[in-house]
Amino acid sequence: MSAEHAGTEEGTVLLTVMQSSGATLGTFTAPVGASSTPLTSTFTVADLPASTLYTLYLSDVTCGVSYRLHCATDNDGDGVCDGADLCPDGPEPGTPCDDGNPQTVDDLITDACDCQGDFTTGLADAEPAGALRLWPNPATDALWLEVDQTRGAAVHVIVRDLTGRLVIVQASLQANAQGQLMVDLSPLTPGTYMIEVQANGQRWSRRVVKA
Q: Cβ distance 206 to 131 under 8 Å?
């Protein structure tokens, strides 16, 4: 456990390990570092059965103290305990990576624990003024888009999967006076996609997650 205090004085916190029934299994005093400099200590409770819920209860904590619990087992060394590791053989989802494809950008570890990037579709250059806003994201069936420059204009919407394959093409949609329009994502399977909006000779693209 690492604990630190925003103030200039060191201190301690009392850590109690309990079963879900409320029975106390061990009580430990952990040091708290001063001036936001953490002090790290260890505590051990022997012979805890697996697949059992336990509670860590902190008391006598001064206002301004923050703490972090570390684990003893992290086989892939990514800083996430094995019991909570979504990708036990490598980096966690959202970690930057390189998928080896020069035509993709913003490569990240996905929820499936593989490395994928956004297919650029030739849009690596800076986008025109006026951000593309979309909501909700993740989306289920209906995805709303808004771009200021599309107010009242005819809008083309293209959706690709992360390999660059076209999955939705909707041409000549009409944005409302606020530059908003709705795209139907119901035909898509859950996953991550790139959505491209074209209007008035300009193009914008964003990543969207279909839940």
A: no
